[in-house]
Amino acid sequence: MVGKLMKAVWYNSYDGGSAALKHVEIPVPSPDVDEILVKIEAASINPIDWKIQKGMVRPLLPKKFPFIPVWDIAGEIVEVGPGVKNFKVGDKIVSTLGVTGGGLAEYVVAKESSTVFRPPEVSAVDGASLVFAGCTALHALTVTARLNLVKTQPRSNILVTAASGGVGHYAVQLAKLGNIHVTATCGARNIKLVKNLGADEVLDYKTSEGSSLKSPSGKKYDVVIHCTSGIPWSTFEPNLSKNGIVVDLTPGVRAFWTYVVNKIMCSKKQLYPLIMTPKAEEIECLVKLVKEGKLKSVIDSRYPLSRAQEAWTKSIEGHATGKVVVEP
Ligand SMILES: NC(=O)c1ccc[n+]([C@@H]2O[C@H](COP(=O)([O-])OP(=O)(O)OC[C@H]3O[C@@H](n4cnc5c(N)ncnc54)[C@H](OP(=O)(O)O)[C@@H]3O)[C@@H](O)[C@H]2O)c1
Predict the structure, then answer these.
(1) Which residue range or ranges hold the Enoyl reductase (ER) domain (predicted)?
(2) Could you list the residue range(s) of the whole structural domain that residue 206 is in?
(3) Claim to verify: residue 137 and residue 113 sit in the same structural domain
(4) Which of 59, 114, 117, 178 is least buried, going by the fewest C-beta atoms within 10 A?
């Protein structure tokens, strides 16, 4: 691939939204010893991608400008580094690029250690969609909240906020695999969809019942997987069971403060801020569930790379139902 050019989309400074995304032609990258070169078939956008552009993790990310955003990809291997042991040219894969990004392009290099095989039953779009959102849902449920998704005894009650979003729609489905009772919040237009994903009770977040987060059947929550923002601890607290916890995926200063205060006070109810980095074994687990027909990705919209700005805008607006995908 030396000397070959590829299409890519990058930005050159903080802020600017979709208007700051520029289409460029640059050399196809070369894989390092432990890397693979992937022809991207699908890349999925997560809020973290445009939050980095907004400077919300400034000055840590991006590591340098210009920066090609997007972490989650699926595609086919076209070249392998000399130290790569488990993959060969022609393999279909799913990978997390992490903070180095690179997904809004025709080709990208990925670490072997962050890559998993994609069986024919899992489309590139499904594979790319799963990575950050699915791993976050899986990690929040099984590691942070320590729920058993194979069998739960006694049956837990959980609340998933923003259950129509990327993370939330996976969280609902994964929780149901563990026979967990799920209450979910979403907008009115998505209530049917979220019920079809398996939620037992659904609250419209724009109603007073929805904003109070009270379960319609009066159940208290053992776990809240909190996938939206702007809900204070004082709203969660009365809805939690005796040892109930909130896993906060959008923690701000107040969330960290609540975490510290609850710890100092030895409160039985706790809030845990979660900052996630997907791992290959978690992606592998999700790919297997999709292959077995136990998990599905809801796709909000698909765009060619030439319309990446529209995909970016769609994600920034915060009203996607499921995942936003770009296909080079
Ligand atoms: N901490 C971590 O490591 C981590 C990992 C992944 C994601 N996150 C964060 O988690 C959040 C969710 O990510 P995502 O990918 O799921 O986002 P997303 O797909 O963009 O979420 C969009 C969905 O959220 C719904 N929504 C918005 N406000 C809501 C509210 N107040 N109540 C209920 N539903 C609401 C929208 O429904 P309507 O269209 O009806 O408004 C829409 O369907 C983001 O802030 C993201 O940055 C954090």
Answers:
(1) 16-326
(2) 132-273
(3) no
(4) 59
In short, whether 144's Cβ falls inside 6 Å of ligand 1 is no
Q: What is the pLDDT of residues 43-96, one digit of tens each?
A: 999 999 999 999 999 999 999 999 999 999 999 999 999 999 999 999 999 999
Give yes or no: residues 114 and 143 share one domain: no
Atom 12 (ligand 1): residue with closest C-alpha? 227
User: What are 3-53's pLDDT values in tens digits?
Assistant: 899 999 999 999 999 999 999 999 999 999 999 999 999 999 999 999 999
Q: What is the CATH number of the domain that holds 216?
A: 3.40.50.720
For residues 248 and 221, membership in a common domain is answered with: yes
Pocket test for ligand 1, best of 44, 51, 186 (most atoms within 8 A of CB): 186
Would you state the pLDDT for residue 152? 63
Residue 66: cis peptide before it, omega within 30 degrees of 0: yes
Ligand 1 close to Cβ of residue 318 (< 6 A): yes
Q: Tell me how far CA of residue 32 lies from CA of 6, 7, 28, 37, 108, in angstroms.
A: 18, 21, 13, 9, 12
Q: Residue 290 and residue 236: Cα distance in Å, rounded?
A: 32
Residue 22, H or E segment: strand 22-27
Torsion of Cα atoms, 40 then 56 then 133 then 261, to 10°: 160
Q: In terms of residues, how long is the chain?
A: 328
How many structural domains are present in the chain?
A: 2
199 and 144 in a common domain = yes
Instruction: State whether the beta carbon of 156 lies less than 6 angstroms from ligand 1.
Output: no
Which ligand 1 atom lies nearest to the CA of residue 230? Answer: 31
Q: Do 64 and 144 fall into the same domain?
A: no
Q: Is residue 285 part of a domain?
A: no
Residue 154 has pLDDT above 90, yes or no: no
What residue type is assigned to position 55 of the chain?
G
Residue 185 Cβ inside 6 Å of ligand 1? The answer reads yes
Residues 140 and 261 in one domain: yes
Give pLDDT tens digits for 207-249. Answer: 999 999 999 999 999 999 999 999 999 999 999 999 999 999 9
Of ligand 1's listed atoms, the one at least distance from the Cα of 273 is 1
